[in-house]
Amino acid sequence: MSRSGLKLDTHASATRDAPDCFYRAYGLAIRSELALPELVGLEPGFVDVAIRFAPTGRPAPARGSAFEFGPDTQYLAWSGAGAFRIRGTSEIDIERAAGVDDRVLALPLLGPVMAMLLHLRGKLVLHASAAALGDRGAIFLGDKRAGKSTTAAALVAVGHRLLTDDVLAVDAIPTGELGILPAYPQLKLATDSARAVTIDAMVGPQLHHAIDKRQHRLTDGFSHAAVAARRIYVLERGDEAKVTPLPLQTALLALLRFSYVTRFEGASLVGATAARHLRLCAELAESAGVRRLTAPAGLDRLDELVRCIERDLAEAEP
Predict the structure, then answer these.
(1) What is the CATH topology of the domain spanning 124-314?
(2) 34 and 19 in contact (C-beta within 8 Å)?
(3) Which residue ranges in the chain fall short of pLDDT 70?
(4) CA distance 317 to 242
(5) What crossing angle do the helices spanning 271-288 and 248-257 adopt, rounded to 10°?
């Protein structure tokens, strides 16, 4: 191990049937035996995270999911995909379930597994989407089907840039502020949302038979640089597009509620880890400002929502 990351074993890589792939996401250089075309490609070299196919010590359960968290090893598994073992903060082992293809295997890897890895590396991880409006980042929180991805797509459609969709990582950036780390240039959109928003993207197949969404890989409109978090919007449905400030306590509760690690029923938030997570949520709520964003019903009114966000973000503290 060096301060730059994991050193590539070029001999071992050359002896495998398929070459390793190299990517960048969330500010991390990644080497992966599983092809992840969603990510931004990177030249081979030192890496921060290595992903490989290897026994996890426990295959995926026959039904449902299973999680085990320890001081140095984290185990996450789903019956319809496979088992994943995170060792330390830089290695992920994958044990594929029988009959599962790469596209399905990538769903949990780039979702909850990546979220857990980022959490272990000290980032604040939210289940959210985000876009960059100039040098100001807007985060969108909300329940399922609240319109997080659709809102981000609507902003991209008028010339703003995507930062992330689904897994959002916040960390200190060179300016000393809390910033949103760029993930990869892809949105997951339901059919009706995709019809309502025109973006330049390559559309993939349906993600899963149980998920009414497709992958939209952007050919433009992605921010490759971290952007300071200036606003956090909690999406709700209403009659008109409007922004309402939330009290700090309510804002903090919203960040805790939509933190990605709460999906694991608190098992990953104990002791010093829980204290650090609470501190980061409080810092973000205070520095960025949390707002309730009322979105008018009907995809034909997305332009109203976009204008409302642009006006409010223009007033945010520089």
Answers:
(1) Rossmann fold (3.40.50)
(2) no
(3) 1-18, 206-211, 265-270
(4) 19
(5) 130
